C-alpha cells in the first residue's frame, strides 16, 4: 500500500526495468526464487544479504469516522470495549510486536477484553474491515496514512507504539552492483526521503 501507488514514478524513470511484485508473509529465498531484490519487514539481519533500512513502523488504533459518533462514540481508550477489536496476526512471529493487549495497557485502558474480536492474517485485511466500520484495528502508519489523509479512517488516540520491526530493501550481496538493483535502491531511498 506504500509501494504500489508510487510505482508509476519508477516506471517513468526506468522504463526498461520490469517489476514483478509478489506479496507474502514468507521470506523470498534468493537461491531458489527468481527475484533480484525484496522488501522485508524485520530487524535487518539476514545472512548473505545486503540490507538498507527504508523506514520504521508504528501502530495506533484506527477506525471508521462513524465510530466517533453516537452513544458508543470512541472518546477514551476504555470506550474500545463497545466496539469490535480487529486483530492482525502477521507479526505473531515477533514477540516484540505490539498487540491489542500491549496497546491497551500502555493507554491505561482496563475495561477492554483484548482477546475478543475478529482475527486476520494480514494487516490490510484488518484495515479494510475498519474502513467498513467493523471495528478498530491497530493500524500500521504506512498502511493507514493514505486512508487517514482522505478520511476513510481516523486515529482517535494519540498513543502510538513502535512495531519493533522496520522495512528493509534486501538483495544478495553479490548482486549489489547490478544496475537494476542500484536504480531500485536509489529510487526507493528518494521516495522514503520525500515521504
Describe the structure.
- By secondary structure, the chain is an alpha/beta fold.
- It has one domain: D-Maltodextrin-Binding Protein, domain 2 (3-Layer(aba) Sandwich).
- It has helices spanning 7-13, 100-107, 123-131, 141-149, 179-194; strands spanning 38-42, 49-62, 85-88, 118-120, 136-140, 161-172.
- Strands 1-6-2-5-3-4 form a six-stranded mixed beta sheet.
Kindly report the spatial arrangement of strands forming the biggest sheet: 1-6-2-5-3-4
% residues in beta strands: 15-25%
Helical fraction: 25-40%
Count of distinct strands = 6
List low-pLDDT spans: none
Structural class: alpha/beta
How many domains, in number, for the residues? 1
Task: Give the N-terminus to C-terminus distance in angstroms.
Answer: 13 Å
At CATH's second level, what is the architecture?
Answer: 3-Layer(aba) Sandwich
**Helix-strand pattern:** HEEEHEHEHEH
Biggest sheet record: 6 strands, mixed
What descriptors fit this protein?
single chain, 195 residues, alpha/beta, D-Maltodextrin-Binding Protein, domain 2, six-stranded mixed sheet, elongated
Compact summary:
This protein is α/β, with parallel strands linked by helices and 195 residues long.
Write the layout of secondary structure elements.
Elements: H1 7-13, E1 38-42, E2 49-62, E3 85-88, H2 100-107, E4 118-120, H3 123-131, E5 136-140, H4 141-149, E6 161-172, H5 179-194
Parallel strand pairs: 3-4, 3-5
Antiparallel strand pairs: 1-6, 2-5, 2-6
Amino acid at each position: 500500500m506504500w509501494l504500489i501507488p508510487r510505482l508509476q514514478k519508477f516506471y517513468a524513470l526506468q522504463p526498461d526495468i520490469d517489476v514483478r511484485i509478489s506479496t507474502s508473509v514468507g521470506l523470498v529465498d534468493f537461491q531458489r526464487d527468481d527475484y533480484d531484490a525484496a522488501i522485508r519487514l524485520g530487524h535487518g539481519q539476514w545472512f548473505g544479504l545486503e540490507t538498507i533500512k527504508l523506514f520504521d513502523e508504528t501502530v495506533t488504533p484506527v477506525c471508521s469516522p462513524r465510530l466517533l459518533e453516537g452513544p458508543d462514540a470512541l472518546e477514551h481508550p476504555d470506550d474500545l470495549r463497545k466496539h469490535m477489536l480487529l486483530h492482525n496476526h502477521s507479526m505473531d512471529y515477533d514477540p516484540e510486536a505490539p498487540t491489542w493487549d500491549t496497546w491497551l495497557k500502555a493507554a491505561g485502558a482496563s475495561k477492554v477484553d483484548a482477546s475478543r474480536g475478529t482475527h486476520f492474517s494480514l494487516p490490510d485485511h484488518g484495515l479494510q474491515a475498519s474502513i467498513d466500520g467493523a471495528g478498530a484495528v491497530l493500524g500500521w502508519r504506512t498502511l493507514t496514512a493514505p486512508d487517514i489523509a482522505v478520511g476513510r479512517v481516523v486515529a482517535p488516540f494519540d498513543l502510538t507504539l513502535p512495531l519493533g520491526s522496520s522495512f528493509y530493501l534486501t538483495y544478495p550481496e553479490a548482486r549489489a552492483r547490478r544496475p537494476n538493483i542500484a536504480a531500485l535502491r536509489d529510487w526507493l531511498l528518494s521516495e522514503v526521503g520525500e515521504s
